[in-house]
Amino acid sequence: MKKVLVTGGAGYIGSHTVVELFNHGFIPVIVDNFSNSDERVLQGLEDILGFKPILYRSDCADYQSLKDVFQAETPDAVIHFAAFKAVGESTQQPTRYYRNNIDSLLTVLELMEEFQVRDIVFSSSCTVYGQPDELPVSETSKQKDATSPYGYTKQVCERILMDACVARPELRCVLLRYFNPIGAHPSGLIGELPFGIPNNLVPYIAQTAAGIREKLVIHGNDYQTADGTCIRDYIHVCDLAMAHVRALEWIDLQTCACEAFNLGQGQGNSVKEVIDTFISVNNVPVRFEIGPRRTGDVEQVWADATKAQRVLNWKTEKSLAAALQDTWRWQQHLSK
Ligand code: UD1
């Protein structure tokens, strides 16, 4: 059984990936500094898995503490999730974002070299495309300037990995460009745990439905779309987690690799459609009003995800409705 170091494994996508890794015969080892993850996820993971996963409370930008983990565990592969991810915050604190997101990847890569670990799956984002010229966005679409420091850290980290692959041809690297992850584990035992006021649409809807927020503000309804609200490609977090398993299975068959894959449904939904679907599938009211546009928002973006299907044998299985039902189950679990 292959041992996989999952940096940021107590986070939203990381924790769901830990579950799928275990379900598919891998041994996940979580490294997390809990800077943006909640201890409650550990109980959820234990309830789903039936045991406590291996966990190190370490900062993966801290060379010595990550080295201790490599020494103790001798992993076969790394999935690198650990990063700050709030777009707005990154514009307020760019130095902190560049320091954290880039340092942690560099430290992981240095230790992979030292311990002769060949395989890395990197958590990237559709944000690397900036405001796209063409839809759907494919892996070969031109990358425009990033619209935030967060987005730029993803572009820079991808570049660092590409350069590392040239310098060390034995490296096998997969860059996974996520579109908009939503939903929660169907058990309702793990899910997204935003600290403070959520920035993202679906956690905000769920908290409004639960009465934690008074009302949701739709950031603009004057876009050039059918109902005037922005369009995104929403993907269930469990589908996303499975893609990491497929990526590890695929790189294991390669002699060398540095490939990027879009992960999305391959179609878009508007903000209004997401709200309406949440209300109808869960049969709960959600108060909302129309507000001004949010600075930096892209009007519409969705993925051409056919490369992941063709090469990784992966595609999404779960619908928007299922994701929103799972979100609500998780929100209710939190409110208990
Ligand atoms: C952004 C990033 C993405 C990142 C993700 C998670 C970009 C282009 N995208 O996605 O890379 O992975 O955050 O942090 O940088 N909305 C409302 N009201 C709200 C909240 C959101 O109307 O209260 C709307 C937004 O205007 C947007 C849509 O919902 O049209 C989705 O927003 P959000 O969930 O924040 O994700 P993105 O901005 O698409």
What does this structure look like?
By secondary structure, the chain is of the alpha/beta class. It has a domain at 3-182 and 234-265 and 302-316: Rossmann fold. It is 41% helix and 17% strand. The protein has 11 helices and 13 strands. The strands form 4 sheets. A 7-stranded parallel sheet has the order 3-2-1-4-5-6-11, sandwiched between helices. The protein has a two-stranded parallel sheet with strand order 7-10. A two-stranded parallel sheet has the order 8-13. Helix 1 runs parallel beside helix 2 and helix 7 (201-209) packs parallel to helix 9 (271-282). 49% of the residues are buried. The model has no long low-confidence stretch (mean pLDDT 96). It binds uridine-diphosphate-N-acetylglucosamine. Uridine-diphosphate-N-acetylglucosamine (UD1) is lined by residues 85, 87, 125-127, 147-148, 151, 180, 199-201, 204, 216-219, 230, 232, 271, 294, 297-298.
Secondary-structure topology with pairs:
Elements: E1 3-7, H1 12-23, E2 27-31, H2 40-49, E3 54-56, H3 63-73, E4 77-80, H4 87-92, H5 94-114, E5 119-125, H6 149-167, E6 172-178, E7 180-182, H7 201-209, E8 216-219, E9 231-232, E10 234-236, H8 237-251, E11 257-263, E12 269-270, H9 271-282, E13 288-291, H10 306-312, H11 320-335
Parallel strand pairs: 1-2, 1-4, 2-3, 4-5, 5-6, 6-11, 7-10, 8-13
Antiparallel strand pairs: 9-12
Helix pairs in contact: 1-2, 1-8, 3-5, 5-6, 7-9, 7-11, 9-11
The structure holds uridine-diphosphate-N-acetylglucosamine.
